Amino acid sequence: MSTGEVVRLVLHVLALLLVALGLSADLDDRDSVLWSDTWTWAGFATLMALAQGAALLPRTVLSGAGWTTGAVGAGGLLLFWTLLMLPLISTNMAFLVTLGTACATAAVLLSPDRKL
User: Across the chain, which distance is largest between two alpha carbons, in Å?
Assistant: First the structure.
């Protein structure tokens, strides 16, 4: 594996882990997590965090739609971040989701199959 491939792999994995941790951990002593407050949005963010990993797939898998699926996942995370995390930006939860969203966006943009 080249250095670029390792960096992309690490960014994709970090994106998934940071978003999942941000949604699941009660880091701000609120006595609740996003999964119990707004489970549909938490499910959406988790699905998008999983989808962004499709940009790792080789071009032959998914008939070349791996990068597009990954880009939709990163875009969905950006939408989630804008609508739900930006108003809560001072919390630890929002910090972790922000880092996860940034990792997903960077990983998709660094993909060699990028169509932009």
Answer: 46
Compute how many other C-beta atoms are within 10 angstroms of the C-beta atom of residue 114. 12
Residue 89's contacts (CB-CB under 8 Å, 6 or more residues apart) are: 98
**How open is the CA angle 3-116-49, to the nearest 5 degrees?**
65
**Identity of the amino acid at 110:** L
Let me know if residue 97 belongs to a domain: yes
What is the domain range of residue 49?
Answer: 3-109
User: How do the pLDDT tens digits run along the chain, 116 residues long?
Assistant: 789 889 999 999 999 999 999 998 876 777 777 777 788 999 999 999 999 999 888 777 766 788 899 999 999 999 999 999 999 888 888 999 999 999 999 999 998 877 76
The number of distinct structural domains making up the chain is 1
Whether 116 is covered by a domain: the verdict is no
Evaluate whether residue 36 is within a structural domain. yes
Reduced to 3 DSSP states, what percent helix, strand and coil does the chain have, rounded to the nearest 5? 75, 0, 25
Question: For the whole model, what pTM was predicted?
Answer: 0.89
